[in-house]
Every structure is written in structure tokens, then in C-alpha cells.
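Lab intake sheet, docking and co-folding queue.

SAMPLE TYPE: protein with bound small molecule
LIGAND NAME: NDP
LIGAND FORMAT: SMILES
REQUESTED OUTPUT: full 3D complex as C-alpha cells
PRIORITY: normal
SUBMITTED BY: R.K., bench team

The fields below were copied directly from the construct record.
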Amino acid sequence: MTVKDILDAIQSKDATSADFAALPIPDSYRAITVHKDETEMFAGLQSRDKDPRKSIHLDEVPVPELGPGEALVAVMASSVNYNSVWTSIFEPLSTFGFLERYGRTNELAKRHDLPYHIIGSDLAGVVLRTGPGVNAWKPGDEVVAHCLSVELESSDGHNDTMLDPEQRIWGFETNFGGLAEIALVKSNQLMPKPGHLSWEEAAAPGLVNSTAYRQLVSRNGAGMKQGDNVLIWGASGGLGSYATQFALAGGANPICVVSSPQKAEICRSMGAESIIDRNAEGYRFWKDEHTQDPKEWKRFGKRIRELTGGEDIDIVFEHPGRETFGASVFVTRKGGTITTCASTSGYMHEYDNRYLWMSLKRIIGSHFANYREAWEANRLIAKGKIHPTLSKVYSLQDTGQAAYDVHRNLHQGKVGVLCLAPEEGLGVRDEEMRAQHIDAINRFRNV
Ligand SMILES: C/C=C/C(=O)SCCNC(=O)CCNC(=O)[C@H](O)C(C)(C)COP(=O)(O)OP(=O)(O)OC[C@H]1O[C@@H](n2cnc3c(N)ncnc32)[C@H](O)[C@@H]1OP(=O)(O)O
Ligand SMILES: NC(=O)C1=CN([C@@H]2O[C@H](COP(=O)(O)OP(=O)(O)OC[C@H]3O[C@@H](n4cnc5c(N)ncnc54)[C@H](OP(=O)(O)O)[C@@H]3O)[C@@H](O)[C@H]2O)C=CC1
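RESULT FIELD (auto-filled):
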């Protein structure tokens, strides 16, 4: 038995759940990995010179044992997230430390502590097997998976599953991720695959869409409302392309920051009217490595006021971090909110705290999404209210190049990866709905 037989079943129009349940699971499968014995390979290099193509491997790996509450999924497609870039350049720390720590928690978790890390935090595919205690899903179900892995044995996580002390991001802080032909997930990561999307389109939004939903829309994040001026950094990137859609769909006014005319054009085609090309306008928020330039914050704020008719920002959607955070705090209106989920350009932020306290602003930390938020975000995709922002699709063996593109900011929106799917465009079950949204679905393609 090989993965080829699994693919044949998925592609046959008439395979039943019983047929999938009867398919033997192969001994091994192909997966994208990083290797523990290579964690020092980039020592001494600048971040931008660390090349994911050198650290990312395609290996044949054994299928992990299936535990209670878990599912094995045949992965048709996945996508590249920035967390896989971090893993591949071993920054800010090696993810093998996460696997070791998880492995120490219990007997079953030891499976995750291996000399290789199978990465990837998105998937679209078909359930192959479920473990004891799983009733909501069965072999043959077409699914996407969100990346929240929790144990929920402590009371801490029961109001908001992100607060579980054993909260982990699947495929980053756990093993057996989605950039592979088979993945191991907890069954409560599974959600129905939107029928109007192909496998690679369905695999693209998951992580970033859920994160943007919590960070911007959810009451656990900024709780955006109609009419809010929302400053969105990297508005055509992974997170930003969903934040822009949420702002527009929710009646807010996105002020989109991008770095090229092409990216500005994508934002315009999504419906945004206020766009700042940070490259063309040449903002230099830092005079040198240690000193910011408040005059540049003011120039940036003035430009925002021109675009809003004199209003300041209600919510900043932050993720670049060190480079932009001082400006983000400055341009926020009195009582406004800066919500942050990352620090791509550096995690030691500096800002002028007088502008925060004197103007009663708030900084909110946000990370991925709880089960409910991830489900609600996926529901919006399934209803055609929010669309995938897939620009380019790579084969599994070219994942290193895909991660390189994201690391070097050469991409738009999301970059997809075909795992078992032999070509793009497969897996669409609702052609009628697809036809209604086809322009929006293809908006980011090949730009
Ligand atoms: C969905 C996608 C998401 C993304 O893409 S996010 C971007 C990618 N992710 C990242 O870049 C994050 C990577 N993660 C990290 O960098 C680290 O993960 C953290 C810095 C977040 C945490 O580091 P850690 O080593 O886990 O924790 P510690 O707090 O630095 O050290 C743990 C030790 O510190 C003690 N400690 C914790 N809090 C306190 C306290 N309040 N007072 C005193 N001690 C404390 C603990 O007990 C423990 O101690 P003991 O080492 O002895 O076991
Ligand atoms: N905590 C969480 O749950 C999550 C955290 N993240 C983190 O968020 C960050 C962004 O992820 P994602 O959106 O997928 O990545 P992308 O690379 O797809 O998009 C980020 C965009 O930010 C802009 N940007 C990058 N650097 C700077 C800078 N120095 N100054 C201003 N703008 C900048 C770029 O847009 P442009 O050049 O057009 O301005 C870029 O396209 C990563 O660090 C990732 O790890 C992501 C998802 C979830």
C-alpha cells in the first residue's frame, strides 16, 4: 500500500467512508522537514542571508502512531506560513526545543520529539483514520485543519482555548505538520472544507485568516466596528490580505500600507481606497539602529490624516514589530488600539510611552485564534464572504523555494503547496458557488 492508492480513492468519484476506512495506511510518506543536527548551519549569518532552501528537506518518514482524539489526514494541499520560515532559519530559536519540551509532558507526546521536524500549519485534505473518542469526523470527510493544539486539562483554557497552558501551534511547536502527504492532527482542529474551493485554495487561508479574525474582529482582539479607521501593515501579505477583507466586509475604513505599486493595485482591487506605498514615500522611522525619528512618525500621521479627511487611526493591525511599532503607537487616536501578533523586523520594540498613557491608548497582544474564532473565520470563507488570497503554487519538493520567496518578501498574499494533489484546480464540489466568486478567488493569482 502506498499513498498513490489513497490518492486514487480521493480522486474516484464514488469512494465511500467505508472504502476509506478499509484502505491500509502506508508505512511511510513524504514530508517537508528540518533536521536537528543542522540547527547551527546558519550560525553567524544575518537573518536575511539564512536560506530556507538549504535547511528544508523532503524526506520519507514513518507514519506516526494514532492516539485518542486524533486523526490522520491525507493532505492534498498546504500553504507556506511565516512560522515555517522561522523554523527553517532556526529563529528566534530552534523549534526542536518545543518538540523536546512537548515530548517530556506525557508518554504519547514523546512521539513528537524526533531528530526531524515535519513542519506546516495549514492543510486541506481527506480524513483517513480517527483515533478512539472521535465521533464528529470519519474517514472520507473532506476537511481543512486549523493549527491550534491544546490539551484542555487545566481550567485556564476553558473560557478561551488560546489560554490553555499547553497551547501549541501545530506544525511549529508540534511535529507531523501539514507540509506532507499525511498529517497527524487533534480531531478538534478539523473543520469542513469549503466546497467551492480547490484543495490549494482551501488550504491557503486557515492560519492567517483565523489570526486576523481574532486580532481585528473578535472581542478578544481589537473588536473592530463599522467606520473604524484601521491601519493595516503589509496589507497585501499573508495576514494583511485577510485583515483588509475583514475591514472592508465589516464596514471599516482600511488604510493599507504596502511597498510597491503592484501591491497597492491589489489592495485597490479588493476595494480599499486609502493606500500608502511605504517604499515610494520613503519613511525612515529609525535614524540609525538605536534612534527613532519622531518627525517621520508625524509625516506618516499627516499622510494618514490626508487620506481620512483629518481623522486618526482607531486600530493598528501590527506585525512588523520593531521597525514600525513606534510609528504605530504615535498615529493611533486617543483611546485607540494597537493590536500586535508578531515582530517580523525585531521583537524588542521601542515606543514613546507618553503617547500611550496620555492618550489612553491600548496595546493588545494577540496570537492565532481559539477554536470558535477559527471556526467562525472558516465559516466566512465557506460562505464566500472572505476569499483565499493565493498567488502562486509550488510542488512539495519546491517548498524550500516557496519559503525563500516568503522570507525575502517576493510573494503576494499566500503561497500554496501541492502535497498529494497532482495538479491545481482539483477538489471543487460546488461549481455554482465558485462561479459567483471566481474573480475574487483569483484576485491574487499570478500578480
Ligand atoms: C500561528 C502562527 C504564529 C506565528 O507565526 S508567531 C511567530 C513565530 N513564533 C515565535 O517567534 C515565538 C517563538 N517562541 C519564543 O520565542 C519563546 O517560546 C518565548 C520567548 C515566547 C517563551 O520562551 P520560553 O523559553 O518558553 O519561556 P521563558 O519564559 O523565556 O522561560 C521559561 C522559564 O522562565 C520561567 N518563568 C516564566 N514566567 C516567569 C515569571 N513570571 N517569573 C519567574 N519565572 C518565570 C519559567 O518557569 C521557566 O523556568 P525554567 O526554565 O526554570 O523551567
Ligand atoms: N501570532 C500569530 O498567531 C501569527 C503571527 N504571524 C507572524 O506575523 C508576521 C507576518 O506574517 P504574514 O503576514 O503571514 O507574512 P507575509 O510576509 O506574508 O506578510 C507580511 C507583510 O508585512 C510587510 N512587512 C514586512 N516587513 C516589514 C517592515 N519592516 N515594515 C513594514 N512592513 C513590513 C510586508 O508588506 P509590504 O512589503 O508590502 O509592506 C509583508 O508582505 C510573521 O512574523 C509571522 O510569523 C503570522 C500569523 C499568525
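REVIEWER NOTE: Residues 330 and 355 are 6 Å apart (CA to CA).
SIGN-OFF: pending second check by T.M.
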